[in-house]
Amino acid sequence: MIEATDLTKRYGSKTAVDHVTFTVQPGIVTGFLGPNGAGKSTTMRMILGLDSPSGGQVTVNGKPYARLATPLSEIGALIDAKGVHPRRSARSHLRALAATHGISDKRVDEVLELTGLTQVAKKKAGNFSLGMGQRLGIAGALLGDPKIVMFDEPVNGLDPDGVLWVRQLARRLAENGRTVFLSSHLMSEVQQTADHVIIIGRGRILADAPLHEFVAAHAREGVLVTSPDAGRLAELATAAGGTVQAVDHRERISVKGIDAREIGRIARDNQLWLAELRDESTSLEDAYMHLTADETEYRAGVPTEQDQTAQEAAK
Amino acid sequence: MTAATQTDTTPATAVVTHRAGYARAVRSEWIKARTLRSTWILVAVALAAFIGLPILVTGEPTITDPAEGAVAAAKAIFAASDFVLILVAVLGALLTTSEFTTGMARNTFTATPKRGAVLAAKATIASLFSLGIAMVGFLATWIALGDKLTGPVSLDFGNAQMVRIVVVNLIGYVVVAVLATSLGVLLRSSVGTIFTIVAMQLILPGILLTVPNDIANWVGAVLPGVAASAAVETGSIDPGTIFLTPGAGLAVLIAWGVIPLLAAMAVLRSRDV
Asked: CA A301, CA B161: separation in Å to the nearest integer?
């Protein structure tokens, strides 16, 4: 379990992570989402004690990272796939990490096998592709058979096989009761892997909820209609109180405000030809876009602290 | 590459882990150092210089006093040290700077969060390599010089002055290795570290000791190489020359190892990786 309380990181006047509080639970996969530069990596570095917080604290299995006696058995992290000496072989790299905890060479060979790197174990890590580098990083993370795994952008640079492998690996680790914490800026990837999402934007937590709840809460589902009579149908749907948007081509529209059943009735009553009528499925990506849109509206609608101070000063 | 579809991460037998501290960090650093070819290239070049230069420059013995001869023999064996110490510094600096330039530091400090222990382990490995080079080099050069070290000009381990030269030189090797490792952390740059050490060892003494300025002379006198010379000097010194006493020279030499190491530890503990 990872627990962050009021965690803050400032670089000069810039606040990278802004009073963040969250808990990452065992037994599920938690996705850590946000655009590049939102504070995901900084948060992860603070979890590992690499960066010290400007405020607040974060614990791993109840302790600050620096106080863990055997950190590799508590949490395995992939932070930076490039963070390997390029002229050291994959196996030597892992043996050096293993030596810090007295982990056997047998386990080193086991994680090489597990990550599919046995064939290239003696090759220099600098010659690895980004995908192989990710696998080496994951191998290092798994060395101590940790209770928590934390991967920063694990599918970056992986081929489709590799992406599927990471997804299955994450699921399997969670099923074994481990805490799995994955960051990504790829919504579709997280949607297929995560049970829970924590969304960060501009250093602040925007949402922290089970995936399905988050999607449901931020969904704005419409009804997708494909019809050769789309123009006429759009007029009728608008008249019935719906909002109509054209989609990708002339025959397809998206209707909000009235449901599919009602649109079907309108079409029948007016003898219009329906080629397709279905509820638009809402993806995590849609929900995320809506959330960030709400966030922008919220920011625009509510006076900021500075405005209030200015108003008070004016009085 | 073959598709890795294996996802069962449960190890065949439980993974046994032990507390991550200084002793295991030393083992880890030893693996890191010995699995880079650059380490062994530096060791080979250092030894070649250590042994090769005395062979080229040592002349036929002319000294007849055995006490003077023993001192001359020891100095002849360490004739290449100025240059060898630069290579030792490169080796020591790379142990720390390469961690930061490659990003390996993040792996290192997640595996061993006790940063002081990691730096102490690196300083230990640098010292062991340096001592290894000095001791192997000493023995090999002694053998290689062969008949140039005969008669009165021979090593005599009963000669206190000669033993002092050998011991101070070995301490100097350790100090330079630790200093380079520490500067690597403080400057985070191999080039900067090597330049600093080249300046301190080869360039500054010549300038600072000769300019007619007391402050410059004092600064020159406490440079590590000059302090090491003072530490072995038992003869009389020209009056008016600013020079440390042998005891002070040894203390200053050791301080060049200790103080930068403590500074590097303080910086490493407080800085983000």
From this structure: 84
